[in-house]
Amino acid sequence: QVQLEESGGGLVQAGGSLRLSCAASGGAFSMYSLGWFRQAPGKEREFVAATAWRGIGTIYADSLKGRFTVSRDNAKNTVYLQMNSLEPEDTAVYYCAADPRPAVFSSLRNPYWYEHWGQGTQVTVSS
Predict the structure, then answer these.
(1) Mind listing the pLDDT tens digit for each residue in 30-65?
(2) How far apart (Å, rounded) are the C-alpha atoms in residues 85 and 66?
């Protein structure tokens, strides 16, 4: 059973940066697809970025491409989300998710694809 724990959230001013981390335990990390999602109050969970099964590639939400970067360190069983030029609209709880199955990139945008989820970390961007 894979367990995921996010960290790195906090309060930041608009234009600032944060790096979120998600540490995994209990699974073959390098084989997993890993995704980042976010959910603002009153809104549905939204895809942010993902690094695919066996690290074969990365995908991003079109609206976030260029500001956010997802990366993984298989030696540390950790996936990262570097967020730059943050805007108040980025305020949300950010979740990481993992799934061991081979997947096409389109599947990785779907929160229902993922088997394992972390508890989330709050990111608040002040104007």
Answers:
(1) 899 999 999 999 999 999 999 998 878 999 999 997
(2) 10
- Please name the residue ranges forming H helices in the chain: 105-108
First to last CA, the chain: 40
Q: How far apart are CA 53 and CA 59, in angstroms?
A: 12
Please tell me the distance from the alpha carbon of residue 99 to that of residue 94, in angstroms, as a whole number.
17
Instruction: Report how far residue 5's alpha carbon sits from residue 56's, in angstroms, rounded to the nearest whole number.
Output: 23
**DSSP-based three-state secondary structure for 90:** helix
Classified as helix, coil or strand, 88 is helix
Beta bridge partners of 116: 98
